[in-house]
Structures are given as C-alpha cells and as structure tokens.
Amino acid sequence: MTQELVLQYLRSHHDQYLADLTEFLSIASISSLTQHHQDVRSAASWLCERLIKAGMTNAHLDETPGNPLVVGSIIGDPHRPTILIYGHYDVQPVDPLEKWVHPPFAPAVVDDVLYARGSSDDKGQVYMQLVALEAWWKTVGTLPVNVKVLFEGEEEIGSIHLSQYIETHQKDLRADFAVISDTPMFAAEVPAVCYGLRGLAALEISVTGPFQDLHSGVYGGTVMNPAHALASLIASLHRLDGTVNVEGFYDGVEVLTEKEREAFQSLPFDHDTFLDSIGSPSLFGDPHFTPLERIWARPTVEVNGIWSGFIGEGRKTIVPAEAHAKITCRLVPYQDPQHVLDVIEAHLKSHCPQGVQLQIHRGEGDPGTKTPLDHPSVLAAEQAIEDIYHKKAAYIRMGGSIPVVVTFQEVLQMPTLLLGFALPDENFHAPNEHFHLNNFYRGAETLALLWHYVSKKDGLQFRDSTR
Ligand SMILES: [Zn+2]
C-alpha cells in the first residue's frame, strides 16, 4: 500500500530530520526585535529552500511591507481536494536568558526531548508538516491531495501584514480547508482535533459626574459618585450564578450536541488540579455547564480593568469626577460580535444610574469559529490519529482566538482543522521551550496519513481553478 511506503520513509529518516530541524532552530528568527531582522529572513530562506528540496519546486518568498511569506503549491489533479497549510517561522524573544538550561538557539536533545526556542511553537511543527509532504513526493512521487503552503514570519507580532495579503491573494490561497499545526494536544498521549475557537468583542466605558474631583466633606451625599455608578453598572451585567444578565446576549449561541458533551466529558480534566494550577479557592460559573464546556463553548463578559479616583498612599477624601472600565467578551461560533456589542450598549444605557453621564467606546469584534464535527477533514484526522496513536482522537476546542482562522473563515470561506502535536506544558513563549520528538515523528506520520484519508472523502466541493 502506498501509504505504508510513506510511513516507512518517515520512520527511516529520523536522523536526517533531527539534523535539519537543528539547523532551522539555530536561526534566531525573533520577529519582535529589529536586531534579528536578518535572522528572520534567513529562517524564511532556509524554509523555502528546504521546501524546494522536499519537492515543492515553486516555493518562493512573497514580500510584504514586513517579513516575507513562504508560499508554494502543488496542484497535481484539480479533481482532488485542496488543502492550505499555515504555520509561522518566527519565534518569541528568549529573555530571561539565564533561565534556559540549554542556549535557546543551540538545540539540544535530552531523553528524546528537543530543547530550543521555536521547537514546538512553531518551527518544529512547520517542519513536521514539511517532512509529511516530502515523504509522499520521495516515495510515491505525488500527493493524494493538492496542497498550498502559507508560512509567515510575523505571527508573534500580531500577523500585521497577513490579512491584507490574504485579501489580495484569495485565488491563490483558496482551498477546501486549512490545516494548522500550532496548538497542543489535550495532554500527553491524548492526541486531539481542535475544531472550535472563541471570538472576541471589546468595549470601554466611562462614567463621568462633576467636572472635577469634589471634596467629599463639602459635596459628599449630594451627587452620584461615578465610581459607585460604574460599580452598579458592572454588577448588573451578571446574575449571581455567573450567567450574563444582558437581554439578547445569548442570541445565536449554539446548543452543545450530546456528541460534543460526551467528548468533553471523556477527557481527563481534574477540577482540583485545575484549581491548583491557578491558585483560586473554588470554581465559579454557569452551573448548567462543566468548566471545559464553559471555557470552550460558552460566551463570557469579563471586566479586564477598572480605574477611578484616588489610589495613592494615604487618603484623599474626594468624590471622583470619573470612572472607567475595559470589558471584553469571549464569543462562541454563530454569535454576531456587532449584535453582542449592540445589546451590551443598550443594557448599559438602560441601567445607568441618574446623575452621571455614560460614554461607550466600541472596540473590535471577531466571531468564534468552528469546523463541524462531521466535516471530511475532521473525520480524516480522526482516522489518521487512530492509525498512528492507536487511540480515539479527542475532540477539543480552545477558549482563545487565532486571528488567521477568522480570516480564513471570513475572507476565504473555509474551515480550519487545528491539528497540533505539541504538549500544553512545553513552555511556548517561555524559557526551555521543548518538543517531544516522539510526537514530532508520530505527528508527521499522522499528517502523511491525513492526506491519504482526505483523498478518500466525499463532500469536499472546492475545485482548484487557479491552474
Ligand atoms: Zn505559534
């Protein structure tokens, strides 16, 4: 069987993969520091050349006003499904340097764990994608699917030029779905398909009263204190059980299916370990949902900061002139960010106490994203994981956002499969970042099989028309 040849190839090249990855990880591609500007470009060139060597002969750098993108495609047969692979070759800064046991850009292997900045986030996983493609080209000569790659060098600084690029290169990038390996598995030996992310909506509110702070002895008791007014407004946003008390806030929120609830329930999640890891005395939140359901599939309204009046040393007996708060909401798929901001704005206006003025500054909003559990990409990933890890794939979501996934959904109308093989405690963005090599090798095999299973699936409608 052809896929057996591919797996054999992957299993017989471990030494070469480690040597190449060591080279890639030795390049200090820190995008946030101008002194590493040349290193970032070197990493892009290294990746591009390695892609060409693997078999993606048209791989090239596409310049942006910032760091270049590494792009390429192999469209073998337009009747086959087309996949876009996204990843990033830039890394986070390394300070505090003295906390690193091995220097961050001198990769070291200890007990089958590879230590280096970028090993798991994300150069190691980008390279894992590359070798999965290469194994097909070097053995079978062709991939069972069409593939496009998009690797950026500005992910760690907010992907500042990426959405503009995607807007102007829609035809080049469009595919049946995107695959990203830049997330962790649920836990060690719990490989996972991540199929949903939460979105975000932000606002700032200001409550103002008198034109300046007032002497509380002279004026206290005669006017509404803006700090009190803000506190009552914020308190009105939630019920005592933690659910959101804003009319219309839950409009569009999808009901979790039994399959999803069972999938989440089956995961090894321990409440005490969770609480210990953050130091809170107890759990709190909507009693109708488990903590994992609340993090992954329920929306929130969260006050991120409040400020007002005098907070210096000693006391200053005033009625403050103003009070402010920053608020963000985590949104779930199908909740419209603009609608959420509308209903919160209406709620705040109707609950604002008399005697103060309320200003609301609406911020940006991004919807949550979701790939349906019966999407061919999810089913193919499930099969590939089962073949390599010999266990059922976990279905997970993430409570945070990945902006590029929103862009893929909004601009390219395509879903994203988040299939990462790092572990949650591999120190992304921190000293001693590492990647377990057995997950690198099994991840590459899983991806190689993914392309096989995707090619067997019906229901992928997109046909590449760029040829
Ligand atoms: Zn990353």
Bound molecules: zinc ion
Gap between N and C termini: 30 Å
The biggest beta sheet, please?
A: 6 strands, mixed
Q: Structural class of the secondary elements?
A: alpha+beta
Kindly give the count of domains: 2
CATH class of the largest domain: Alpha Beta
CATH architecture annotation name of the largest domain: 3-Layer(aba) Sandwich
Strand portion: 15-25%
Radius of gyration: 25 Å
Strand order of the largest sheet: 1-2-6-3-7-17
| SS element count, helices | 15
Give the proportion of residues in helices.
25-40%
- Which residues sit in consecutive blocks of at least 5 with pLDDT less than 50? none
How many DSSP-defined strands?
Answer: 18
Q: Tell the overall outline.
A: elongated
Say what the CATH topology of the largest domain is. Aminopeptidase
CATH homologous group name of the largest domain? Zn peptidases
Chain-averaged pLDDT: 96
How would the blueprint of this fold be written?
Layout: H1 2-11, H2 14-25, H3 37-54, E1 60-62, E2 69-74, E3 82-88, E4 108-110, E5 113-115, H4 123-139, E6 146-152, H5 162-168, H6 170-173, E7 177-180, E8 192-197, E9 199-208, E10 214-215, H7 216-219, H8 226-235, H9 258-265, H10 271-278, H11 291-297, E11 300-308, E12 318-319, E13 322-331, H12 337-351, E14 357-366, E15 369-370, H13 376-389, E16 394-398, H14 403-411, E17 416-418, E18 434-436, H15 437-455
Parallel strand pairs: 3-6, 3-7, 7-17, 8-16
Antiparallel strand pairs: 1-2, 2-6, 4-5, 5-18, 8-15, 9-13, 9-14, 10-12, 11-13
The site of zinc ion (ZN) has 5 residues, from loops.
